[in-house]
Structures are given as C-alpha cells and as structure tokens.
Design goal:
6-stranded antiparallel beta sheet; alpha+beta; 3 domains; Pdz3 Domain; single chain; about 775 residues; 20 helices
C-alpha cells in the first residue's frame, strides 16, 4: 500500500512538474535579456555603442543625439500629439500661402481572394484611413475560425443606408457574397425571413444562421428594383488580422465603449529636420498620418497592388505606402506573404533629415484564450500574442504579452541589425522581414513592443489577452532635395500558419566562412527543451503517419496509445504481477504491523525480509509510470504546437462537441450561470466557460481502476492512504479540465488497455489464502 501511495504521489508530482515544464528554461542570451530588462529600460535610447552602418559615422552621431532626448514610444492616439515640440530652427515653408492639408474619402480595397481555387493563400482588406490593413483572412479550407460557428457571408463593412437597409462597403473576392454577385454600395434589405433596416440587423440575422446552408438574400442596386439571390453560407475563415473588437466578441465579452483599436502597419514620422518626437507623443506636431485618409493612387482594376499617397503640403514631403501581392508559383514562394513599400519624396529645395516609425500587425487571433498554453523560451510566462524577433548573430527571442501589458518589456531592443520582428500567436504569426541588400545593414535603430489600449489591472484583468504590436523606428536618413532619389524601404510581410515547411522558406541565408547559418521563421515552432522537443516531434510524426491512412486524428491517437502500451506490455505485465503478489502478501504485512506496532524499525526490517523471501520489489511497478511521462508530455506539446492537430475533430466539424482535439471537448457552455472566477479561464483553477466531459471520464476511469484492483485496506493507515489518493484524483481532475481532448483520449484509451491487461492476468487468491502464498518458501 505504501508503494502505491509513493507511486501515485510521484505521478501527481510529475504531472504538476509537467504542467510547469511547459515553460522552458531560457537560453543564455534570453536569460540575460530578462535579467537586464530594468537596466535596459533605465539606459533608455543610448546609441553610443551602435555599429557604424552604411550611412557612416555622421549618421550614428545624429542618431546618438536623437537618443538623448527620445523616450519610449507611445501608441497612436486619436489625433496629433499635443506635446510634440518643434525645434526653434525648424525649416520654414517656402511658400507664403500654405494650402490646407488635403482631404480624401475613406475607401477600402482588396488584394487576393478567399476562394481556395484562386491560388491565393489569403485575402486582404485595406482601408485608406492610415493606409492600413484592416483584415487578412486565410483562404484554405483547413484554416477556419474555431470559435465562430455561425454562417459566413463575407466581410461587407456594412453601414446604415439612407431609406433603410445595410449598405455594402466592400466585397472580398471569393466570399459567398462575391459569388452571389453583391457589389460595393449595394443595399441588403432582407436575409432569409428577416427584414434588414440597419447594419446591426444584418449582423444579428447572420448570427442565427449555420455554415453550409443556403439562404435567400434580397438587395437593391442604385435605383433598380430589388434583386433576390440564393447564397450558400460557409464557415468563417481564420482571420490573422482583424479589428480587436471582434476578438473581444469571440471571447463572449462586451466591447468597451472606450475601446482603443489600432489598425495594422501604420506609418508616421519619428523626426523631420530638427523636429523630434517627444515623450508620450504618437506623432510630430502638425503631422497626422495615423488617423487621416490617404489617397488611393491605383485604379480599382489592379488586383496586384494598392498604392496609398499622402502629401504633407506644409512640410514639402510626399509619403507613399504600397502593398504588393504576388500569387504563389509553387516553387519560389508559398504565398503567405506580401510586400510593403514605404517611400519618402522630398519636395523641398533643401535636403533634410528624416526617420520613420512603422507599426507591425495587430488584432491577431485569440483562439484558445482560456485553455491554450504556448511554450515559453524563458522562465517567464508568455501570452496569446507575443513579440517575436531576431537580430543578426543572435538566437530568436520572445517578449511575453503579460510583460508588454504592464510596461515591463524592454523598450530598446535593436542593438544589432534586425532580421525580422512581429507578433506570434498560438498557431499563426505575422512578421516583418526587411528586404535588405546586406543583412548587416542597419535600417532599424530601435525595436519596441507596444501595448494597444490602456494599461490593464493584473488583479482583475487577464494581461495575457492584451492586444500588442511591434514598432520599428528607423535610423536617421539624409533625404535628397527635390528632384533627387526618394528614400524607400521594402518589407516582406509573412502572415500565415506556423507550419515548419512553410516557415523554413521565409528568412535569410547568411554567407559566413564556415558554416553558413540560416535565419528563418522556422524557429516560430518551438517545443521546449531539446529532450522534450525530440519526444514531441516523434509523437507528431507518428500521429501524422497514422492519420495518413486513418484520416482521423482521434483514431490516430488511439492507435498511438495501442502502440505505446503494446511496446510496454512486458513491463506492465510485470507491474501487474507485482501488484498481485502485493495483494497476496497483505495478510502477512498486517500481522507484521500488529506484532511490531510500537517499533517502526523492527516492522520495517520484518517487511523487508518478507519481500526478499517472496522476491517482491515494492518499486517494481513504477518504471511503466515513468516511461509514460515522456509520452504524455510529448503528446501534450504536439497538441499545443502542431497546427495540423488544430481544428481536428473526433467525429466531425459539424458537431460542436470535441470538434478540436487540440482544445477541451466543450460539451456545454455554462458561462450563463457559473460565476466569473470559474469561467474567465485565467489560472489553473479557473475552469473556463465550458463543461468538459472527457476530463471527468478520464478521472472517473482512474478511480474505477483503483477501486477494481486495489485490495481492501489492511489497517487504518492504509485506509487513510486510499482516501488521500481519492482526494488527489479530484485535484488531477481540476488539472485535466482544460487539457486538450486529444490528451484525455490518450489517457482513456491507456486506462482501458490497463484494465484489460489486469483482467487477463491470474486473479489474486481469495481472502484467507495467504498461507498458500508462503508454500513456495517451504519447498
């Protein structure tokens, strides 16, 4: 009995350790980064140690001068920064009459298509406000939204129409709306049996629909009469970039009235001439590039690029942002990327110094917000959307969302040439990759992790859910006078799934004497310590092999269980026989306990003599338990990291229950009546918004197996030990409540296998047959 208690305690301890070991220890460079965060923040923007780039020492001296005054970056605000301070000797306008800033209408354009047959991997919706990316939706059918189970018509950017109805603002190619013939400025007046008077009515009506169904849609175009069409709704695609309010709604929360949202890939100025950005300012005084509408230059028929232009009339400067999309050719690019050009043209007769600020992606997916656990590269925790970056000559690094949320992230990270930087979500990422001629060129003077929105209170808010983005601040550049060469930087932007074969094709190959070193995005896929990573990769490979002919990952996990338990059968059989022998010796152990109840030392010696006499090893059954621990951890990491297991159903995606083996089974949504501290999902003992049945089945089988094969307690101590084990089973149930359903499936199959093994072995003698157990010793 003591042996069982020890073994169970070891298992429980191992499970607790396994839960903690999902946060991996830091590599040396990352540990140093965490250790020196406070020091780095205190040093601020000291650039005296920067390497001299292609611009020469004069440029470095200018950057060092800027660093003396500059403070950590502020996020974009609702207008020009009030405290941006122009220099006294700022360059005056060359014309006496300065025209007013231009005003352009708010427009949307699209690139790509959501139709998988189009060859595009995604569709982008761009908006003239800030010349930004509003959303980016993947086209492939295996990447669908796992939270939204309503019918999908397409993103329409609908607004209330004069005279009633929902006016369409944009139609993305490949969506059901586009296939049905809807166009921009059409007015939807009816969906199914519901009359549509406002854009909210259209949204509410769609919430009542289901995927893979057909519904009647009525709309009007111009002054023509109503048009009736049948639309086939689909599942909503996974949107790597979208407005943050939709991520909040996906969590079942109300959108705050004061929500601060930020579009992706915004651009503004860090310095122009002697005018520099000051503390807590988002833009230079008198210059607003974040909130105004830019002019769209390209014709609407151009489906390969969208060019935005904004002239700063008073400052004699023209700024260009261009998004370019190239379809994948199957050889040189997988297609999960686009090019972003930022270009500056000086319209003044004099040269001037300029530096820009380029924000990265925002609004990345929050799926798995209450159960998902990414594997950290450091001892510190990570969140749902973390800053991921790498410098030349260094390993990749990660700054966790929780640190960014409470302003504890280092604010000056670019001490080497930047290779790439972006935001890393659970299964998807979006990363900026500078297209430099030489990798040691230093485009970026500073990299920052930026929190979007107000600072959350860690006591009442889940800081892991904070929306984050990256901020690249360029080095100061001498912009030639009017008629000279414009200054242009081009970034390749990856936005796609974290699949190793895809990620390996993005990055750089650095020519070094020996050996050559690759800098690719493949490091986004991280399993933790090399030992556990090796096991996880083996588990992943085995599951993919079984899936290749079973076509169901649930069956693949069961077959994996059979394979593992079959390989361990000789050991598990020995363990079972050892337990049977223990039951046979229980009467003798009880006699020894009664005989030496007041002398623990003699009792221990007598028990050891009894075990030697019958060739019994109390720890003989623990090996099987420890051998299963790497399998458990490897499978857990595989489910948390491998995107192929995301959205893999046990039965079918049309069935809500257990429709994602990488998530809990989610039998019933109990958030309507359970208290918030249970449903918010923040912490080990917060169970989340769903009742999950598979963890209860798993623990129930553990308890049933224990009751079937554990002998009645021989004394009060043994009875107490059995009670403790039952209580620990309850703790295990809480620990298992949010684990992936695929992991529960493994434990259920493994427990049933173990019970079957025990049934096939000889039964222990009936009570009172202990004398027979001693017969072999008299021969």
């Amino acid at each position: 009995m003591e042996k069982r208690l020890i073994a169970f305690l070891l298992i429980a301890f191992a499970l607790l350790m396994a839960h903690g070991m999902l946060t991996a220890p830091p590599p040396a460079h990352q540990a140093a980064l965490d250790q020196n965060q406070t020091e780095a923040a205190a040093e601020g923007d000291n650039a005296s140690g920067e390497k001299t780039s292609a611009g020469g020492k004069a440029e470095d001296q200018r950057n060092a001068k800027n660093d003396e005054q500059e403070q950590p970056a502020a996020q974009p605000d609702a207008g020009p920064a009030a405290d941006a301070q122009p220099a006294e000797d700022a360059q005056p306008a060359e014309d006496k009459d300065v025209p007013a800033p231009p005003k352009f209408p708010e427009e949307r354009r699209t690139l790509g298509s959501e139709d998988p047959a189009s060859g595009n991997k995604f569709a982008m919706t761009l908006i003239s406000r800030g010349a930004a990316v509003e959303r980016l939706a993947l086209a492939e059918v295996q990447f669908r939204d796992i939270d939204d189970k309503t019918g999908y018509l397409g993103h329409l950017a609908a607004t209330d129409a004069p005279g009633g109805g929902a006016m369409v603002g944009v139609v993305v190619p490949g969506t059901p709306a586009a296939i049905a013939g809807l166009k921009r400025d059409d007015v939807v007046t009816q969906l199914g049996e519901t009359d549509i008077e406002t854009a909210d009515d259209l949204h509410a009506a769609l919430q009542e629909t289901k995927p893979n169904t057909q519904i009647t849609l009525v709309y009007r175009r111009g002054h023509a009469g109503p048009v009736t069409v049948d639309v086939s709704l689909t599942r909503r695609p996974l949107e790597i970039i979208r407005p943050e309010r939709e991520n909040i709604e996906a969590r079942g929360e109300e959108v705050p009235n004061n929500l601060e949202e930020q579009l992706s890939f915004l651009l503004t100025l860090q310095q122009l001439g002697d005018q520099k950005l000051k503390k807590d300012a988002a833009q230079l005084d008198g210059i607003d590039l974040l909130n105004v509408n830019w002019e769209i230059v390209d014709k609407e028929t151009d489906d390969t690029q969208v060019t935005f232009r904004y002239p700063l009339v008073e400052q004699k400067l023209e700024i260009i942002k261009r998004y370019r999309l190239k379809k994948p050719d199957g050889e040189t690019t997988p297609g999960y990327d686009f090019d972003l050009d930022v270009e500056f043209r000086n319209l003044s007769k004099s040269p001037r110094q300029l530096a820009y600020r380029l924000y990265g992606p925002s609004g990345l997916p929050v799926e798995g917000w209450w159960y998902g656990r990414k594997i950290s590269r450091t001892w510190s925790s990570v969140g749902v959307r973390d800053l991921y970056f790498q410098f030349l000559g260094q390993d990749p690094m990660l700054v966790g969302t929780a640190k960014i949320a409470v302003d504890e992230a280092p604010h000056d990270l670019a001490d080497h040439p930047l290779l790439f930087a972006g935001i890393d979500a659970q299964y998807f990422a979006s990363v900026l990759i500078p297209r430099k001629e030489n990798l040691d060129d230093e485009w970026i003077r500073k990299l920052e992790a930026v929190r979007i929105g107000p600072k959350p209170d860690p006591k009442i808010e889940n800081t892991r859910l904070t929306d984050t983005t990256s901020l690249l601040i360029s080095k100061l550049h001498e912009l030639e006078a009017r008629g000279g060469q414009p200054w242009r930087h081009t970034y390749q932007v990856f936005a796609g799934p974290k699949r190793p074969d895809i990620l390996a094709q993005y990055g750089q190959l650095v020519a070094q004497p020996a050996p050559q070193k690759e800098y690719t995005l493949e490091t986004l896929v991280y399993y933790g310590w090399p030992l556990w990573a090796g096991v996880a990769k083996v588990m992943t490979a085995v599951l993919h092999f079984f899936y290749s002919f079973l076509r169901n990952y649930g069956l693949a996990i069961i077959l994996l269980t059979v394979m593992v338990r079959g390989m361990m059968f000789p050991l598990s059989r020995k363990q079972a026989l050892n337990m049977i022998k223990m039951q046979e010796l229980q009467p003798e152990i009880k006699k020894i306990a009664e005989k030496y109840k007041d002398d623990m030392e003699k009792r221990t010696r007598a028990q050891q003599e009894l075990f030697r006499k019958h060739n019994y090893n109390p720890m003989g059954g623990c090996l099987v338990m420890f051998l299963q621990l790497p399998v458990f951890l490897g499978l857990y990491k595989a489910l948390m990291v491998d995107i192929a297991l995301r959205d893999a159903p046990l039965i079918s995606n049309s069935v809500r229950w257990c429709s994602n083996l990488a998530a809990p089974d989610m039998l019933y949504n109990w958030s309507g009546f359970m208290p918030d501290f249970i449903t918010h999902g923040n912490g080990l003992f917060s169970l989340g918004p769903y009742l999950n049945i598979l963890p209860l089945v798993t623990v129930g089988l553990f308890i049933f197996q224990q009751k079937m094969f554990m002998p009645p307690p021989a004394d009060d101590q043994a009875a107490l030990q059995q009670k403790i084990m039952k209580y620990m089973m309850i703790l295990m149930g809480i620990m298992f409540f949010k684990v992936p359903s695929g992991l529960c499936l493994y434990f259920i199959a493994s427990t049933l296998w173990g019970m079957g093994e025990r049934k096939l072995l000889p039964k222990p003698p009936a009570k009172g047959g202990a004398a027979g157990a001693a017969k072999p010793s008299r021969k």
